[in-house]
Amino acid sequence: MIKLSVLDQSVAIHGQPQDQSIRDTVAFAKVCEDLGYARFWVSEHHNHPTIVGSAPEVMMAAIAAITQRIRIGSAGVMLPHYSPLKVAEQFRILDALAPGRIDMGLGRAPGSDGKTAYALNPNAGTAADQFPAAVRDLMAWVSGAPLADGHPFAGIRAFPEGATSPQPWMLGTSDYGAQVAAHFGIPYSFAHFITDGRGVARALQIYRENYQPSAAFPQPLASICVWALTAESEDQAKYLYASRAHNKVMRDHGQLSALISPDEALAYSYTREQKLRFEQLTAEAVIGDVAQVSDQLKSLATQYEIDEIVVLSWTFDQPARHRSYELLAEALHLSAG
Question: Three-state DSSP class for 202?
Fold first, then answer.
């Protein structure tokens, strides 16, 4: 059996106020907890008209207030934008609100364009180069461990302290993140949905072969995040996927916008090149009826020797997205207990 978790990106929906997407994410976390999903992660993007979740730590606090069991995480905090001490303080607060349920997912990518990254932190370029040191300091502060010998900030602590601490995760789409995760001995999650699966095998191999055991994680722990969507039938799933396919086609041409309905997506006047791309995306996506999708997820778990997959889905209508996760939970025998 494999565990399933969730990544929610607070996707903007055409004709709906963007703030509703934030509220939908919070409410959906409770739905996923009741269905038996292991984790609920929220992403960080900036200046992005499609993905409006820009502050995962704030989202996590709201989710912590309405859930009791499910782990809550960032996927992730883009560390070069921030001070490691401030991130540690935020996650110490989150762990106080939901003790033992917080995942601190970290990333090095900007989650935005270069100009926006500069607006967030004019020193972001330098900070990205110092990413391993920032991860080292953050992990020490958030766990209450001492900083490195001779550190200029030795003696500074991140409050509040508690009996538990957030679980660190390194997120990535390249060999670099795998190497950092292996060096620090922490879990690693590869964003399969960003690369369409390219580079997964190599990154996991690098992670496992170079893993340096830590006290908290004596063995490597890896997952992948997959875009997947199911419905009552394969045709229905493909219909719902049209919104996502349209968005990706437009993104290829530099056009970012809110998710449109499947009917609008299917009726859109595509160029021949765009139409071919739309068809390619539909053919390659992890979509179909629940047997097809659950079999694909189990196959990926076997292929990459993992026991947990994080599922990301977009739909124009919220009930369709809820139903997709419900069908997967039933097929893979998840339990809220």
Answer: helix
Is residue 244 assigned to a domain? no
pLDDT at position 114 is 84
150 torsion bin: left (phi>0), alpha (psi -120 to 50), beta (else): left
Q: In which residue are the tokens 């830590």 written? A: 214
Is 279 within the bounds of a domain?
no
Q: What is the dihedral of CA 260, 263, 267, 273, to 10 degrees?
A: 60
CATH number at residue 186: 3.20.20.30
**Which parts of the chain sit beneath pLDDT 70?**
337
Q: What is the pLDDT of residue 210?
A: 98
84: its two tokens: 């490691």
Residue environment code for 152-181, b if the CB has 16+ CB neighbours within 10 A, otherwise e: eeeeebbeeeeeebbbbbbbbbbeebbbbb
Write out the two tokens for 43. Answer: 């992403």
- Residue 42 Cα distances to 51, 102, 103, 302, angstroms: 11, 12, 10, 26
Q: Are 56 and 76 in contact (CB under 8 A)?
A: yes
CB 36 within 8 A of CB 25: no
CA distance 114 to 235: 39
- The answer to whether 151 and 133 have CB atoms below 8 angstroms apart is no
